[in-house]
Amino acid sequence: MTDIELDELAKRLGEVTVLDVRTPAEYDGSGGHECDPRQGHVPGARNLDVYRLVEMTEAEIGAELGLEPGAEVVAYCHSGSRSKMAVQILRAAGYDARNFAGSWHEWSRHDELPLE
Questions:
Q1: 24: domain range?
Q2: At residue 84, does pLDDT exceed 80?
Q3: Residue 10 forms part of a structural domain
Q4: Tens digits of residue pLDDT in 8-28
Q5: What is the rounded distance in angstroms from the CA atom of residue 105 to the CA atom of residue 32?
Q6: Is residue 77 part of a domain?
Q7: In this structure, is residue 30 part of a structural domain?
Q8: Which CA distances in Å does 110 have to 6, 104, 105, 106?
């Protein structure tokens, strides 16, 4: 199973490792997209720009995330493209990775959902 839907992710915050693969400016809200009504990131999400991730070895990914292979990781970006690439990298590194295809573009539209 590759994708995770909005409702499942919202219910599982704190249970799964959430990885925001956008740029640091998108993550902190200072450089987000105008089409998103809210800026920031999913609560508890770690930030690792996908363009940095593609250059990392499996050992470096493990050290950066502080996770053992096999751990469940949900990746998201702005619209699901970068996170799809991140999922492929994470799976190759041995993680149970899933893509939140709706990504920040979907999350930011739901005022009832928390953000940081």
A1: 6-66+82-107
A2: yes
A3: yes
A4: 999 999 999 999 999 999 999
A5: 10
A6: no
A7: yes
A8: 10, 10, 10, 7
Domain contains 115: no
The total number of structural domains that make up the chain: 1
Q: Give the separation between CA 90 and CA 98, rounded to whole angstroms.
A: 9
Q: Tell me the pTM.
A: 0.97
- Asked whether the predicted pLDDT for residue 88 surpasses 90, the reply is yes
Cβ burial of 27 (10 Å; 0-12, 13-18, 19+) is buried
* Domain CATH for 49: 3.40.250.10
Q: Which are the contacts of 58, defined by CB distance < 8 A and separation ≥ 6?
A: 69, 92, 93, 94
Distance between CA 68 and CA 93 in Å, rounded?
10
